[in-house]
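Handout, section 4.2: multi-component inputs.
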Amino acid sequence: MSHILSILIFFPLVAGLLGFLINQKSIRVYGIAVATIEFLLSLWLWFGFDGSNPGMQFQEFIPLIPSFGINYYLGVDGISLFIIVMTTLMTLLGIVGLSVKKDLKNMIITLLFLEVAMVGVFVALDVILFYIFWEFSLVPMLYIIGAWGGDKRLYAAIKFFIYTFAGSLVMLVGILFMGYLYYKTTGHWSFALTDWYKMVLPLDLQKWLFIAFFLGFAIKVPMFPFHTWLPYAHGQAPTVGSVILAAVLLKMGTYGFVRFSLPLFPDAAVAYITPIAIIALIMIIYTAMVAYAQKDMKQVIAYSSISHMGVIILGTFAMNVEGIGGSIFLMLSHGIVSGALFMLVGVIYDRRHTKLMSEFGGLASVMPTYATIFGIMTMASVGLPLTIGFIGEYLSLAGFFKVSPILTVIGGTSIIVGAVYMLSVLKKSFFGPITKEENKHLSDLDLKEKFALIPLVAIVIWLGIYPKPILEPINTSTKALVAFMHKKAQTKEAKATIHVSKALKEIKK
Amino acid sequence: MQSYLYIALFAPLVSSLFAAIFAQQKKIQLVGIITSILIALSFFASVELLVYLMQTNKIVHATLFDWIVIGDMNVKFGFTVDHVTAVMMVVVTLVSALVHIYSNYYMEHDKSFNRFFSYLSAFVFSMLVLVMSDSFLGLFIGWEGVGVCSWLLIGFWYYKKDETRDVNPSISPSWAANEAFIMNRIADLGLLIGIFLIFWNVGSLKYNDFFAAIPNLNHGLLVAIGIALFIGAMGKSAQFPLHTWLADAMEGPTPVSALIHAATMVTAGVYLVIRANPLYSQIPGVGYFIAVLGTFVAIFAASMALVNRDLKRVIAYSTLSQLGYMFAAAGLGAYWVALFHLAAHAFFKALLFLSAGNVMHAMHDELDMFKMGGLKKYMAKTYLMMGIASLALSGIYPFAGFFSKDTILEVAFNEETYGIWFVLWFTAGLTAFYSFRQVFLVFHGDERFHELGIHPHEAKPYALWAMAPLAVLAVIAGFFKEEFVEFITKFLPPYEMSEHTEHLVWFFIIVTMGIALTGIFIAYKKYANGLRRDPKVENSFLYKLLFNQYYIPIFYEKAFAKPYKELSDIAWKEIDQEIVDATVDGIAKAVEVTGDVSRRAQNGNLSTYLKWMAFGLIFISLIALISVVVK
Amino acid sequence: MSVGLSEYLILAVILFVIGLTGVIRRKNLLMLFFATEIMLNAANVALAALSSYMGDLTGQMFALFIIAIAASEVAVGLGLLILVYKKYGTLDLDDLNLLKG
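Output:
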């Protein structure tokens, strides 16, 4: 149990390398087996996780370059735990639902390598290690889009790569500068996040560093106006690429905000709440409108992701437990729901080789199971209570309401504009008479697709009704995070904005 | 008693899930029967709870498990059955059970028979969650749940295609469903904001905690909460300006209209105001606004019903109008009166809709009343039912509507809001007129349906039996007013009429009955002896205005839907692609162009390179020289 | 008139400028070689003069090194020139631009 995190990282790596030896025929079974084991390992991690402990658990520490304080340092807490579980789950379901025919072997091995990078990002506590995984995750995705994508795949892949890479480089400068500052103040080098947390920086330095990290994360999220790579990447990527991209890769950005920006620079974060909230509102409303204007079903989901990420950002910068916890929950729920929606688009794309909604219409009559699952995911996406989508959205908005009621009212329109574009997808594609001859004899979901989708439906409803197993560890860790930020904050403004929940205050008394 | 609570609540859920198993299969009669039985079970459990409450006056609580627990937010699935809830439960489950039974008849030839029952039972479950929850967030679950079920059921015949507004004012079922959902969502945002306000100022979302905290909250905040909650109520109860969806919702199957869009869901807004009565009694200003808006909607909707030819739309407008009455009463502080009218209205309006369903079946889904007429010969029993319902709706003694509506008028007079009283009084006349216009157009006069080659037939007996309890209640419900008052005022604040009003009771009865009877008489004169259409009237501006619903749907489309679509296109094509993405690509282009330009320097000619080198050498030497000199 | 350090250095500068002009102006690769040799020798003159002036032998040693290296460079360079001429039939720089970007 003590090396579970290393196992989680290196098992898919080793399995991926061994995968080169497996022959083409059995590679799918092999891939599913490996991903299942990895998923079970992550469940085991969850099982062994102590939900009442707010700190880092399962820590591992191996010095790599001690003279520069760069170490192999891993750990997991309530914030990252479920993102890891979701990562392994979505990878598994992505492989199960895989429909590519070309170079299946390479695809599965690439996905396993991608899993290594994604898990690595969420467990790394050493910033250099984090950065290595962060950048490494680009490579398999570049390959997935570039090799299995649509007609403009090279453009999309290169845009994705260079854009996010450029942002990360600014972040790297921030990381190195931060490390240098640590060296200057303490006299020795360290890139361990837990050491960095202890550093209290003056506000102006915080602001510069915040911006450096912000650029890296904002492009990954992606925040307006850095979002334009996303529609291309989604539009060109194969289904599994979109699923992983939306479910996990985008969350790396918001995870970064929670893990780095907030605790490292609490004063700067508070100082920048208003501009960031305005960007988030633009993301929510503007991208929802853009989503409504789309003709391609997949692009609607792609833009809807940006809109939902806006709500996540709003929750993250609420500076209270409700908001931050809600945004973490929304990361999970958005991962599951948007992943499922991309899979669903993939289902119809496999049958009709088009994603244009004008080509569909009346699909509910010929593919009832498909339409039902799509409907459930739509409802989860628009945040219906008792589905997974509601809790995160509600908590994020409720949290931000404490900061600014007016901005929350504007941000709350997400529940309206979200319904507008999602229902218009349903109406255009699923309702009405069947107008196209090709659509009259489409087959409903096959076994493989059901295996990939039904677990997601179950999760969407289960966690919508009983989110406690997930909310509790999130609650513990977030409470500690907020209390820590409150203690660390120097400016009056930050002290006033960061809202420690009452329960914790009472415990302290 | 908790087990009864759970039975009442979860029987519909079980019913829905059971029907859902067979949702994609061909019609299974057993599904209809079992779901009906389960809903009836829920009804009996509700009655049991009501009786228990009557006898012991003890409120039943039940808490299931934690839902959202994070930070200071602590929301459990908690249910409570108090007096208001018990009344609502009995009304909801009774109408639901009868509508379920009736639907066995109405949907008998529909290929998605099983799916229909799944949705319908899911609706009952959501509605029960709405009325039984003990917190605002629990209410919100039901609130959204009924919204989704309403969406599913309005769009039940999703495969119909979009028509123009001239052919079908609702365009198509799926269009109407989306309209209803989105309009409700606009209002839901208001409710959500109200919930946030309560949470951050009270720290709990439970009704009791909030009501207990009201004395400590400042007035401005209470007004804000009151307005936010009422915005939510406006959407669900289709109050102006969010009213257009209700008439379009008539695209759904008629039992749905009877259950959701007449008896239960649309009254959720009224329920919310009644439920939050400790709040609204502190902010009479908002209450007065609610009353005025309700009054306006009452006459506004009634006016549209005057000229409409669509059987179901007339009833929909009348529902709207009656909701206005309820809000008027609730807004003026007479909460139990509003609840009483809500219950009475549920019975006779559901009856009216189900009768309309019989007519529609007989008429092969033709809805234009101008193409009907003389049906009383063929469908005497339906005629009787619809007559009873219309009498009750018009407020004729001794039918249920008389007692509830008359009390509302008395309240309006008692509060010295004579304007409201007058408008409501006048609307009572309009109500009587359009109700009987409908009855006479459908059942009296010449038989105009022969042109369509229709042979009308009476509904099946069991469908009529399912309607019978409603008919009975529409007749007798009013006589239980005293018992109702005694029961409900243990929980809701009592409403005492002043002595002055008490003296005038007989005067009110006569005046109100007078205008109602006048309305019926005019309708009789005009329509009972066959349809005489007057092109001059039909071409008049007023008629057209009313017929086109004051052009509000067209206005909404032109002012909101279309600009939103256009703005979205601009946002995508002009802003996102032409500005944002073009900037990004522009930066990449700039790098490429720079490279392209500087590429020319590398021309492969050694001589040129050497020249550059020499130039560089001289340049560096110069700099070195200058720096030495300057130092 | 005695020949002092400055005269040597002026000579070195003149030689260097002559070489540099040759490098810039000449188009024939062979001539370029000669021009480079002149420049190297300019440096040699300067080194030797300064060495004698400072009383430090290092400069003269360097000059000898440069002469040796220049000789070997010429040997290799001329060999390459012959090959270039054999392959392309010209030593004109304007015609030798294979590295054009």
